[in-house]
Amino acid sequence: MDEPTSTFSFLGLTFNWTTIISTLIAMSIVVLIAVLLTRKVAIRPSKGQNAIEYVLDFVRGILGDQLPANLARQFGLYAFTLFLFLIVANEMGLLLQVKMGNGVTYVKSPTADPLFAFTLAIMSLMLAHGTGVKALGFGGYLKNMFFKPYVAMFPLNVVEQFTNFLTLALRLFGNIFAGELMLNLLASLAWGTHLNGFWIILAFPLEIAWQAFSLLIGGIQAYVFVMLTGVFTAQLSGNE
């Protein structure tokens, strides 16, 4: 049976309260982290400043492997913000789930919602395509995207652009959704009152181990999403 959800309609569109609330919480956490760790920037950095600078250098390294220096600088702030947000959003469902008495989960990983993952993919790819137009001009952008290396490759290049979108979105959604689904299943086995002691004893350590593994997966997916954004941007701007 599908998990109950809470939705509302506005101007003919349907919105999911769980995704909205979870996204706002993830955004608030990212802003809070950034403010707390950078409010006292000094030449001799504190531990918090060291941590945020390490993440920034790490993201710069991701972009530096894919893009020329000028584009890497332009994308630095976006990629850094995106990476921090994805880290928080991916881990929320593992560390913070709020389920009400009506059975609706109001707080979980927003990236476990396929529409949210598709939205992030659209944002990143629109930025990549816009960079391609700016770097090559509209004609050069179309030629680079659809007719490279040969005109006969046009059908395959069209398919490639669509699969890039699916790859970016579904890789993120699939991993986070599967991790939460498996964790909820193990939790029901570990804490379910209808099960005998053997299954409870077996399921509890598995739940702890899977949660630790899912934390790692959440971080990896944040890295992969930012890296692929850089790869697609490099391809569309003629810097492969």
TrEMBL record:
Source organism superkingdom: Bacteria
Residues that span the membrane, as ranges: 15-37, 75-96, 116-138, 150-173, 185-206, 213-234
GO BP of this protein: proton motive force-driven plasma membrane ATP synthesis
Compartments it resides in: Cell membrane; Membrane
Function: Key component of the proton channel; it plays a direct role in the translocation of protons across the membrane.
Family, as annotated: Belongs to the ATPase A chain family.
NCBIfam families: ATP_synt_6_or_A (TIGR01131), PRK05815.1-4 (NF004479)
Name the UniProt record assigns to this protein: ATP synthase subunit a
Organism annotation: Fructobacillus pseudoficulneus
Gene name, Swiss-Prot/TrEMBL: atpB
